[in-house]
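Checklist before submission:
- one chain only
- standard amino acids only
- sequence pasted in full

Submission:
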Amino acid sequence: PVFVAFQDDVPVGIMGLMRQSASKMAHRATLVMVYLRRELHGTGLAKRLLDAVADYARNEGIKQLELAVSADNPAAIRFYHREGFSVAGRIPSGFLHEGREIDDVIMVKRIAD
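Returned file contents:
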């Protein structure tokens, strides 16, 4: 599923959820396609979008959310920390941006026991 936030009928934020397909990992899902218009950073919209995704995931039996965030995005890393995610690891050169290799920071959050 893909969750979209609208402002005056214009999409301003998006967050996708990709559940693991293997039966042994079906309790896990990865946040994908996360985007929020810059002028809406700090407004609480990202938290509301993440809460909606987590509520949906919980209702689907998902117990753990996972994500990869660019190490060059400290604001996003701080946001995820505030929302209860913890760093599980790092993938060196996991992301390529304009010819530059950037580490991916892997983060996880338990959403159900």
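Reviewer check: The longest strand covers residues 86-97.
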